[in-house]
Design brief:
It is an enzyme of class 2 (transferase). Required for the formation of a threonylcarbamoyl group on adenosine at position 37 (t(6)A37) in tRNAs that read codons beginning with adenine. InterPro entries: DHBP_synth_RibB-like_a/b_dom, Sua5-like_dom, Sua5/YwlC_C, Sua5_C, T(6)A37_SUA5, TC-AMP_synthase_SUA5. It catalyses: L-threonine + hydrogencarbonate + ATP = L-threonylcarbamoyladenylate + diphosphate + H2O. This is Threonylcarbamoyl-AMP synthase. By secondary structure, the chain is an alpha/beta fold. 46% of the residues are buried. 34% of the residues lie in helices and 16% in strands. The protein contains 13 helices and 15 strands. It folds into 2 domains: 4-226, DHBP synthase; 235-346, Threonylcarbamoyl-AMP synthase, C-terminal domain (Rossmann fold). The strands form 2 sheets. It has an 11-stranded mixed β-sheet with strand order 1-8-2-3-7-4-6-5-9-10-11, sandwiched between helices. Strands 12-15-13-14 form a 4-stranded parallel β-sheet, sandwiched between helices. The model is unreliable at 213-220 (pLDDT under 50). The protein binds threonylcarbamoyladenylate (TXA) and magnesium ion (MG). Magnesium ion is lined by residues 138-139, 147.
């Protein structure tokens, strides 16, 4: 199948492809999603196939307005209304209990709840309105790879497997939305994102966090959390603070193997021994770093000689919580001491 690139003026064509049961990737303010008509069972099944995604991992319903949520949920908690008022459209996904027979098992992974999101992207909101139904959309990457923040990332992973990509340039936030479960007594953050715990608590009061690493045989709260994520081909070595950067660079250089450096401009300025082609800039703040992280991991995936990536950490406050959550996943949850780094290299 030829994968078309749709521009903003071709939204009617993209909507027609969705209505015909085809898959169309769409932009959001977080990452690109892989869209299908949520009410078309065959189309939703194709999403799992195209991504290579395990079918027990439920999908987010992207909606253009609150009415679509009202039509589907059994119980619309006050807290949901307050959060929607404060953060929609935006990077907060809300899990609520469904009315019976609203969406299929293929969408919900067999759960009695579903995740709703109103993305802050005008082209995609117009696309959902043109279709007239919610669009399911996991991130539009091959399962296990970093989420796409550019249309070309989607094209790289899914060309030939999907009907088209609605291209609206680079995404803004760069990390997937915050997922908040509102189906329990106390709301729980299942995935951290740009809308932080403090942001949410300022609106609805105290909530909980549940982002522990879920083992493959555990029944996870957010099923997606048990799968390997964001894994580049190289081993990511997190350099937790800028103070350790010079030591990490010296150590990696002494191994006489090409390595990549994913860091802020300030740290890259110290990396004089690393060729420009093996450096990828995270800009200079945690915001720019979040926007660039997945593109950086993908950049080094195109360089098979790179077996190790030194990646800069940020303090786990504000957006840093979500950034470090994704960076730790890309590193396989591992931190290395200098001795362990050495062991790592001797294994190549
Ligand atoms: O920013 C985003 O959220 C992007 C864009 C495209 O909207 N989407 C995204 O979707 O990241 P996905 O499928 O890659 O991640 C959705 C997460 C998964 O971890 C999934 O297990 C969880 O949300 N999830 C979905 N429905 C759920 C439910 N009913 N209960 C618990 N977790 C759920
Ligand atoms: Mg994903």
């Amino acid at each position: 199948m030829e994968t078309k690139i749709y521009t903003r003026t071709q939204i009617p064509e993209a909507a027609a492809a969705l209505a015909a049961g085809e898959l169309v990737a769409f932009p959001t303010e977080t990452v690109y999603g892989l869209g299908a008509d949520a009410t078309n069972e065959a189309a939703v099944k194709k999403v799992y196939q195209a991504k290579g995604r395990p079918s027990d991992n439920p999908l987010i319903l992207h909606v253009a307005d609150v009415a679509a949520v009202e039509a589907a949920v059994a119980d619309f908690p006050d807290k949901a209304r307050q959060l929607i008022k404060a953060f929609w459209p935006g990077s907060l996904t809300l899990i609520m209990t469904l009315k019976p027979n609203t969406f299929s098992k293929t969408v919900t992974g067999g759960l009695s709840t579903a995740a709703f999101r109103n993305p802050n992207n005008a082209a995609t909101l117009a696309l959902i309105k043109a279709l007239g139904r919610p669009i399911v959309g996991p991130s539009a990457n091959t399962s296990g790879k970093p989420s796409p923040t550019l249309a070309k990332h989607v094209y790289h992973d899914l060309k030939g497997k999907i009907a088209g990509i609605l291209d609206d340039g680079p995404t803004g936030v760069g990390l997937e939305s915050t997922v908040l479960d509102l189906s329990t007594e106390t709301p729980v953050i299942l995935r951290p994102g740009a809308v932080t715990k403090a942001d949410i608590e300022a609106v609805i009061g105290s909530i909980e966090n549940n982002q522990h690493h879920v083992a493959a045989d555990e029944i996870p709260k957010a099923p997606g959390m048990k799968y390997k994520h964001y894994a580049p081909n190289a081993q990511v070595v997190i350099v937790p603070t800028p103070a350790e950067f010079q030591a990490a660079l010296d150590w990696a250089t002494a191994q006489h193997q090409p390595f990549g450096v994913l860091a802020t401009d300030q740290q890259l300025a110290q990396a004089t021994q690393v060729s420009a082609a093996n450096q990828f800039s995270l800009g200079d703040t945690v915001e720019t770093a979040s926007r660039a992280l997945f593109a950086g991991l993908r950049y080094f995936d195109l360089k098979p000689e790179i077996k190790l990536i030194l990646a800069e950490g940020f303090p786990k406050t504000g957006l840093g919580v979500a950034y470090m959550n994704r960076l730790e996943k890309s590193a396989g949850q591992k931190y290395f001491s200098k001795d362990e780094w050495l062991m790592l290299y001797s294994n190549y």
